[in-house]
Design brief:
Largest sheet of chain A: 6 strands, parallel
Distance between the termini of chain A: 39 Å
Structural class of chain A: alpha/beta
Number of helices of chain A: 15
Oligomer: homodimer
Helix content of chain A: 25-40%
Chain lengths: 366, 366
């Protein structure tokens, strides 16, 4: 079977997470993706985590792409990128657009161009995941109960959501291009992605309609039963009961006298209101058992649960790291190494019919 | 301009976040999306947050769709859904597949069917965002420094990423169908989405290659400079310097004697190593000023920063809540209300040519 995005060609002009994640995802689905960076590398080339001076972050976000480096400060370098963009037909970027790398100018060369442009704020001003998240409310409801400061997420969740939504937007525009021949410019911002997601989850309407502001509930899952527990051997696990069936499973698995709690605990709101009492019963039951013992009982009763792991435990236990989480039924490539930065500069420029030696002499490439 | 996904018809069989978010996104882009639920509603119909007994969560995740309710426990009800799936041509689901609502059986009715199936774990076993996140390592590196327990995220980030990646997968399969006439089954799991994202961010390679486990650094952004500060008027803000340019902007904006710190602070690693000294200088500077004063100075010097806001502050300040963050240049619909659960049961079944009164008498619909 051919790769699912066979024939799609994407030029990526990017840094950090959102556009590179989008490009790496498209590449893993079989698109040809070329990432362009300035001479010497972009601002994210040495982003931590590092290993022996190499950025594991850059490597992880740029798998499956060809890497081209050019003097992007020079008009000639940017003109070359514009030629390449026209040739590829699709552009994915999260950097400020500079002439001639703007949608209208690129369309002069390639009328059916599809271009996806990611910004920080909706009006184009800069913002990053960590300012967007601060501005949205989540840091005030994340973290230990009683903590009096905001708690940032470490996962750049808005970058990730934006990167994946960007590929959705790109493929939506590609669909229209296939059907009508018309390209288009697709814009999205980290700020609006975050706002729209908060809206989908009901958090904006809650803030509008409910008098009391949302509290901070630590590791409790709001509005139902779910929290962390510690086992006898010092491991931690999450236990949840989102549905009546899961609640019955938990009750059967533990045999605990939840019926002493004077409420209909098959109702999620009642589980939430009585989360302390439920937890008080579960805590010693789990605390007297090892993780392995709890696991065996919970699995036998289809309890919704899972152990906490550190990243070191994760890599010790996984046997496979696919390049993309989408499985179309064929062989999926494993997550391979990224190219060496600038590795394909000459190759790509030769394919464009350029005189590589002359470009080097002119300082446009290294 | 026609909506970008004009002509795409999607049947959604879903609950909770990932598939409903995907369906709502496709609907906001102009696809016709019908969500099917069991009689009386699915397990997520009353999920918190609530307002006057109505789930703001369900409302937020089901905008723009038509809602159909059928007796899904009966073979006849499931057969009707299978007919509807064949008619629509595309299925998006995150529920266990039951006959005849499986890909092979649906293909008998509609050979070019595209079906996107989301599971919790890669092997199809159940998992939810909160167990997947526990199992991946993030809770041990999130939250206040010195805290000795895992810290859960409140944002179901893996549900969100999976929902958006599902739409990418759906449109990738739709592209192949347009080009070749072949449909296909697309599988993805919350567990693998989380694993792949951690891999992209370098966290898995870090755990493999770096001896020391990643620490917990509170609101500091790992490997560069970024953290929260409190202003004189009791507001909090994030300040970051990810690039040399942003670092120079911060130094100019504050006029603080960062040159006394004996390191080249244009290097991100040096900013990380000296984050305490940088913070010690910035803390009183910000603490002596109001948020408005800091904002004016930072904006004038293009500092990368942003205030923390509560959800109540967010909704007081925003003037627009779009239905989707993707902007294709036309009018974007605002985030509208969801349908009443089951509102379109009769309408949709009549379009299928069914005898609605007979179905009601048989108990297949309410």
């Amino acid at each position: 079977m051919e790769a699912i995005l066979d024939g799609l060609r994407v030029l990526e002009i990017s840094a950090f997470v959102a556009a590179p994640l989008g490009g790496a995802t498209l590449a893993a689905l079989g698109a040809e993706v070329i990432r362009v960076d300035p001479l010497g590398g972009g601002v994210d080339l040495r982003r931590w985590p590092l290993h022996r001076g190499r950025s594991l972050y850059w490597q992880g976000l740029n798998r499956g792409k060809r890497s081209v480096m050019l003097d992007l400060r020079s008009r000639r370098g940017r003109d070359l990128v514009a030629r390449l963009a026209a040739e590829m037909g699709t552009v994915l970027t999260n950097l400020p657009e500079r002439e001639p790398l703007t949608y209208p100018r690129l369309c002069e060369r390639r009328p059916d161009l599809v271009m996806v442009s990611i910004t920080g704020r909706a009006d184009g001003r800069p913002a990053v995941d960590y300012t967007v998240n601060a501005g949205l409310g989540f840091p005030w409801i994340t973290g230990p109960e009683g903590h009096d400061r905001p708690v940032n997420h470490v996962l750049p969740a808005w970058d990730v959501a934006t990167g994946y939504l960007a590929t959705t937007g790109l493929l939506a525009a590609e669909r229209r291009r296939l059907l009508t021949g018309h390209g288009g410019l697709v814009r999205l911002s980290l700020e609006e992605v975050a706002l729209v997601v908060a809206g989908h989850l009901g958090l904006l309407d809650e803030a509008r309609l409910v008098g009391e502001p949302r509290g901070r509930f630590g590791n409790h899952l709001y509005g139902t039963f779910g929290r962390d527990f510690r086992t006898r051997d010092g491991r931690y696990l999450m236990v949840l009961a989102l549905t009546p069936r899961q609640w019955h499973g938990l009750a059967r698995a533990t045999g605990l006298p939840f019926e002493r709690i004077p409420a209909d605990l098959t109702d999620e709101g009642e589980r939430w209101r009585h989360r302390r009492e439920i937890g008080d019963l579960l805590e010693p039951w789990i605390g007297e058992r090892t993780l392995a013992e709890v696991a065996a009982t919970f699995e036998a009763h289809e309890v919704l649960w899972g152990p906490y792991r550190t990243f070191k435990e994760v890599v010790a236990e996984i046997d496979r790291e696919p390049a993309v989480a989408l499985d179309f039924g064929g062989e999926r490539p494993p997550a391979g190494p990224a190219s060496r930065p600038g590795e394909h500069t000459e190759e790509v420029l030769r394919e464009l019919g350029e005189d590589v030696e002359e470009l080097r002499a002119a300082g446009v490439i290294a």
